C-alpha cells in the first residue's frame, strides 16, 4: 500500500451547511445504493447511502448528475462511478472532515485505478457542493456536469456501477479507500428501470492515496469511464 501523501489544496466549505438526505424518491426519481440493504439515511447511524439523478444527456457534453452521499467516518466517505469494475478507472467523489481543523468539511475528486486499486490525482468540474459534519456523520450534496460512461463523445451513456466506501484522513492526507459496496450496472437517467435495490455484495478494500491539487481543470478521459467538459 502506498503511503498517504499530504494534499496541497482542497475545496473547503462551511461545516453547518443545510443538508437533508432521505430515501424519498428512491426507485422513482433517483437511483439509490446503500449498505446495509434498505437502510434509512434519515435515521440509521450505520447507513452508508448514496443517490444519483441524471438529467437527459446532451451530446457531446454528457449528462448532469446530482449526487447525495451520507455515512459515518472520522475521515471520509466516497461515491465512485465506473463503467467496468475490473479495468479502467473509477471516478471518486470524496466528502471528508479535517479532524485537525475542528472537523471542517472538505471535498475533492480522485481517480481509482480498477486494476491495482491505487488512487491518483485528477480534476473534474463539480458545482453546488454542500456539506455537513456532525461528529462522525458526514452528509454532502453536489452536482457533476458532463458525465458520460462512453469514451466516444458523440455517444451518450449514463450506465455505471456505483461504489460506496470510506477511508481515513490525517490533516489533509487522504488514506486508502475501502470499498463497502459495489452495485450492478445502473442507468442513472432511469431510476425506475433499476428497481429500488440493485446492489450486489461488497468488494474488498482498495489501496493508495495521492497528492491532489485544485490548481488545474483537466479533461478526464479514461478507457472505461470519461467525464467530458466543454467550455
From TrEMBL:
The keyword Transmembrane belongs to this UniProt entry's keyword annotation: yes
Keyword Transport applies: no
Residue spans crossing the bilayer: 162-186, 206-227
Superkingdom in the source lineage: Eukaryota
GO biological process: regulation of glutamate receptor signaling pathway; regulation of postsynaptic membrane neurotransmitter receptor levels
UniProt keywords, alphabetically: Membrane, Transmembrane, Transmembrane helix
PANTHER family assigned: DOMON DOMAIN-CONTAINING PROTEIN FRRS1L (PTHR46902:SF1)
Protein name: Ferric-chelate reductase 1
Organism: Pleuronectes platessa
Amino acid at each position: 500500500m502506498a503511503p498517504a501523501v499530504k494534499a496541497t489544496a482542497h475545496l473547503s466549505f462551511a461545516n453547518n451547511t443545510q443538508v437533508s438526505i432521505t430515501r424519498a424518491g428512491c426507485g422513482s426519481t433517483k437511483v439509490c445504493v446503500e449498505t446495509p440493504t434498505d437502510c434509512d439515511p434519515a435515521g440509521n447511524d450505520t447507513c452508508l447511502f448514496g443517490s444519483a439523478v441524471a438529467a437527459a444527456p446532451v451530446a457531446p457534453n454528457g449528462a448532469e448528475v446530482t449526487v447525495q452521499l451520507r455515512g459515518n467516518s472520522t475521515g471520509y466517505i466516497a461515491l465512485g462511478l465506473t463503467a467496468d469494475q475490473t479495468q479502467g478507472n473509477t471516478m471518486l467523489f470524496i466528502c471528508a472532515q479535517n479532524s485537525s481543523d475542528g472537523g471542517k468539511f472538505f471535498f475533492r475528486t480522485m481517480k481509482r485505478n480498477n486494476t491495482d486499486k491505487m488512487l491518483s490525482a485528477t480534476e473534474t468540474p463539480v458545482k453546488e457542493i454542500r456539506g455537513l459534519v456532525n461528529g462522525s456523520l458526514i452528509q454532502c450534496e453536489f452536482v457533476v456536469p458532463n458525465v458520460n460512461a462512453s469514451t466516444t463523445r458523440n455517444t451518450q451513456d449514463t450506465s455505471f456501477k456505483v461504489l460506496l466506501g470510506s477511508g481515513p484522513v490525517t490533516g489533509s492526507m487522504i488514506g486508502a479507500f475501502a470499498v463497502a459496496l459495489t452495485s450492478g450496472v445502473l442507468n442513472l437517467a432511469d431510476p425506475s428501470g433499476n428497481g429500488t435495490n440493485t446492489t450486489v455484495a461488497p468488494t474488498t478494500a482498495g489501496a493508495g492515496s495521492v497528492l491532489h491539487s485544485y490548481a488545474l481543470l483537466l479533461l478526464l478521459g479514461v478507457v472505461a469511464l470519461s467525464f467530458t467538459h466543454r467550455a
